């Protein structure tokens, strides 16, 4: 079986729960605060490892207590973290997350050590032709671009989840086998002339589409927290593809993982 290799972010999520999300300029009273593991790269790697494939995470954490602890906890969950570097005198990335009683959220990310991801991490990828490379945009886009170049030279599969969303040059998008986007992002890609047969389009509680393959969403009663649903979907999708699944089966795996993720607090299954 092929490996899933994730180049991406590791964050500490500071999660505040409140009855409702504040509007701009408004203060609301929260009901709890927790520190949880997060970052799109780590979340997706954890989801892929949970699906049972060999998963390597490449990225950076800070040198304070939380960074090494995070690295060790991921290793305990079967994520290979040999490629997670600990640069000196830099803090681990943080995300400030507010979650309301309906499970909806707002997120502000402070990159921290994730901004240090660069040549050393790209060299640590050590991609093989059968691997699936999974990327996001919480690390410098230069590193993402260089990782895609390495993947193309080797011939492995490249999945890009361009989140946080930004418009990327056509050359980078065209070099990816598949992009994973939501419905709003998909419309921007379509207007830019992107080949939508190469896009996995998610729609929250709606159907998921990959070209002409459509898989219905799983209905979830009383979701607890939607924070990690998209990352769980992406990680499980990558794992299924690494295991040889076709598009329909891979989408179904992603949908199941995303639905399961909203039934508990946080993007991963442990706390600091």
TrEMBL record:
Main location class: cytoplasm
Compartment list: Cytoplasm
UniProt keyword Cytoplasm, yes or no: yes
InterPro entries attached to this UniProt entry: Carboh/pur_kinase_PfkB_CS (IPR002173), PfkB_dom (IPR011611), Ribo/fructo_kinase (IPR002139), Ribokinase (IPR011877), Ribokinase-like (IPR029056)
Cofactor note: Requires a divalent cation, most likely magnesium in vivo, as an electrophilic catalyst to aid phosphoryl group transfer. It is the chelate of the metal and the nucleotide that is the actual substrate.
Reactions accelerated catalytically: D-ribose + ATP = D-ribose 5-phosphate + ADP + H(+)
Active site: 231 (proton acceptor)
Catalytic EC class: transferase
Regulation: Activated by a monovalent cation that binds near, but not in, the active site. The most likely occupant of the site in vivo is potassium. Ion binding induces a conformational change that may alter substrate affinity.
SUPFAM superfamilies membership: Ribokinase-like
Residue stretches in coiled coil: none
Pathway field: Carbohydrate metabolism; D-ribose degradation; D-ribose 5-phosphate from beta-D-ribopyranose: step 2/2
Residues noted as binding K(+) in the record, renumbered to the chain: 225, 227, 261, 264, 266
EC number: 2.7.1.15
Domain of life from the UniProt record: Bacteria
One annotated GO biological process: D-ribose catabolic process
Domain Carbohydrate kinase PfkB positions: 1-269
GO CC terms in record: cytosol
Cofactor dependency: Mg(2+)
Keywords: ATP-binding, Carbohydrate metabolism, Cytoplasm, Kinase, Magnesium, Metal-binding, Nucleotide-binding, Potassium, Transferase
Family in the record: Belongs to the carbohydrate kinase pfkB family.
PANTHER family: RIBOKINASE, SUGAR KINASE
Quaternary organization: Homodimer.
Annotated protein name in UniProt: Ribokinase
Organism, scientific name: Allobranchiibius huperziae
């Amino acid at each position: 079986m092929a490996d899933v290799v994730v180049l991406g972010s590791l964050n500490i999520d500071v999660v505040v729960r409140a009855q409702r999300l504040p509007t701009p300029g408004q203060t609301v009273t929260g009901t709890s605060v927790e520190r949880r593991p997060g970052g799109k790269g780590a979340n997706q790697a954890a989801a892929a490892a949970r699906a049972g494939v060999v998963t390597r995470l490449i990225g950076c954490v800070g040198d304070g207590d939380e960074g090494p602890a995070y690295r060790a906890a991921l290793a305990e969950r079967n994520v290979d973290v040999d490629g997670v570097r600990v640069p000196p005198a830099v803090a681990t990335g943080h995300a400030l997350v507010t979650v309301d009683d309906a499970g909806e959220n707002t997120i502000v990310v402070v990159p921290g050590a994730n901004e240090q991801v660069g040549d050393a991490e790209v060299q640590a990828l050590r991609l093989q032709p059968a691997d699936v490379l999974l990327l996001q945009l919480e690390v410098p886009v230069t590193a993402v671009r260089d990782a895609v170049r390495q993947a193309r030279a080797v011939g492995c599969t490249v999945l890009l989840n361009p989140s946080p969303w930004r418009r990327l040059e056509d050359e980078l998008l065209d070099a990816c086998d598949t992009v994973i986007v939501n419905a709003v992002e998909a419309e921007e890609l379509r207007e830019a002339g992107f080949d939508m047969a190469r896009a996995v389009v998610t729609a929250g509680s709606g159907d998921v589409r990959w070209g002409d393959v459509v898989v219905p969403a799983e209905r979830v009663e009383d979701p607890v927290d939607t924070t990690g649903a998209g990352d769980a979907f992406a990680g499980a999708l990558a794992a299924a593809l690494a295991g040889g699944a076709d598009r329909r089966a891979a989408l179904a795996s992603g949908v199941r993982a995303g639905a399961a993720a909203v039934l508990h607090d946080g993007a991963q299954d442990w706390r600091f």
